[in-house]
Here is the input.
Amino acid sequence: MQLDNRKKEVLHAIVDDYVSTNEPVGSKSLIERHSFNVSSATLRNDMAELEHLGLIEKPHTSAGRIPSDKGYREYVNSLMTIEELTPREQLEIEKRINTSVDEVTELIKNATHTLSETTGFVSLAMSPRLKKSFLKQLKILMIEPGKALVVMVLSAGVVKDKVVRIPNFLNDEQIMKISGAIEKSLTGKPLDEITLVTVETAGKSTDVPEPLLKQVLYEAYAAIKQADELNIYLEGEHRMLSLPDFSSLGRARDLLGTLSDSGMVAGYVNEMENAARELGNDDSYMIRIGQEITLEGLDDCSFITATYNLTDSVSGNIGVIGPKRMLYSKVISQIDFVKKKLNEEMKKFT
Amino acid sequence: MQLDNRKKEVLHAIVDDYVSTNEPVGSKSLIERHSFNVSSATLRNDMAELEHLGLIEKPHTSAGRIPSDKGYREYVNSLMTIEELTPREQLEIEKRINTSVDEVTELIKNATHTLSETTGFVSLAMSPRLKKSFLKQLKILMIEPGKALVVMVLSAGVVKDKVVRIPNFLNDEQIMKISGAIEKSLTGKPLDEITLVTVETAGKSTDVPEPLLKQVLYEAYAAIKQADELNIYLEGEHRMLSLPDFSSLGRARDLLGTLSDSGMVAGYVNEMENAARELGNDDSYMIRIGQEITLEGLDDCSFITATYNLTDSVSGNIGVIGPKRMLYSKVISQIDFVKKKLNEEMKKFT
DNA sequence: ATTAGCACTCTATCCTCCCGAGTGCCAACA
DNA sequence: TGTTGGCACTCGGGAGGATAGAGTGCTAAT
Here is the structure.
């Protein structure tokens, strides 16, 4: 994008003003609020040019201009400078996150909550992608005849479990044998390398009768597979209703309708993550603006996520969905800071 | 409430019409839609009377009447007749709930989801009140030095666990001793009779050094206490935005804002439950209408819950939050049916 | 007790008008 | 060539006003 300096400044100013006032900005108010050493007519020419480039647009003929998706994109990519949080703001966030918790999941929920409160938008986090973590322990506990609990401890310091049904006849001892056999042969294996076959092979060494054994092994396998399922935590949906951007009930409804399908949102975040990886994108955050987001009803939103790390190979996403008319520099640094703190806290678990 | 038959019919008709049209109903349209064998003037007199009794009210002088909270209350208490669901509707609900799951929690979530889908409103469920259930098993598993998992199996067929921190020096054997001691002495005790003292007494019989022991016992106690904490599952908040009753953004915002604080809603449901018990109320459902609900922003809502039973002594609530302008007879039977199915399914877990 | 008739009330809706902010374009200027 | 003042034009939004329509309460008659 080739823009001379003044045009850059104009676009910058338009985005800033529109973000803060929520009103289309005209050439005159631009002059009043900023110290351009030119007349409004000159800015009008610049603005015509910017509009021609598709960076800004007018809601109707006699209104001022608002940034287009492309305009926001340009702003985010080249124009804005990310500002650090003030020590006060940092403290506020630290205080909220540092609540001591015993499980990573709680920590992530904390962070999500904090993010929604500090940004005032919808926040979300994905649970860690555990496919790359490996099994450290696996125990099957008899609960009662026909019912057992599979407990797995993963390398990332995460504990997962699942209640499973097992044949009624099996006794404690048999279960322990199977449990031991699986543990022995699968310990150290990354979850994504464990298949039904691997588990079945592991169980062969026991002397438990075939059909019974097979069912238990299958359930154990199912438990392991469930352990690396992704969860998403969404919070603060109602905050969107307070934003003027969603004062139209229709938009608000579409937005919250889409967000209520958390599985769909999770899928989308996953896509974003994969796309970023393929592109070798090593920015510390990802941004999607307006129509760039392929979820229905999010046309007026921006989606910003960062990647947190539980271990070197196990990571997840945390971020925000807000109106595209947002203070990007601020929000990005908030997310970034929360992510940083989250990473620090996570070290305590691994 | 002393009402002659025709006045009852009039109130009934007003509620029905208002529920289905969402428009204040006048004497004339009442005549048109129902077969009263009197003139509109007579109904006007009746309506003036009903208004005097506080059962209906007018939004403004020249509009028709709408039911007041008291009017809905009268309708619900004495006027309506609950209609059975059609076989078709029943089938639809059964199909959704019968999805096989391994845990009670999943089952409850299923039911909540179903309820929101079939009513089109916000649905909610409380996790079972486990205070009255007793401990069947308690195991403490070493995960790694300094970290253990407390697994509890409760009489209601529920499995709970919690990761806890323990002193680094403790070894597997010591933990097993403690675990065994606690289990031995607490098995069969209802959760609400287990105190820190009980747990500490249980642990005395082991030969683990005092300060280390104490910490583990405390953590075990904390895990037990956490097991009977109540959770609430809320679903379908966004559906409220599609209702004409919440077409004003302000109302919608207040409502969703309140619902976003699930802890507060849970507390309120608890209060309702307790109040009903104290009154010895053995209706199969509880209803709160409009201002009867003491939560902010729910003035235009009704809150209907039923009690499901996991065992004789362990129960929880499931229900709906909808606009007070709702088809009570239908919604109540939907909730009732879901509850019935939920109870049936729960038998499989206990 | 019920009814017909009537005057009255109030909202919702539709028009119309007008203000003001903003634009695009043109001609003049540096 | 880039900048500027001037000006006619556009359009949305708000104010004001008229009107229709649904509904009410009251009264007098049945």
Remarks:
- Residues 328-347 of chain A form the longest helix (20 residues).
- Residues 96 and 114 of chain A are 6 Å apart (CA to CA).
- The mean pLDDT of chain A is 94.
- DSSP finds twelve helices and ten strands in chain A.
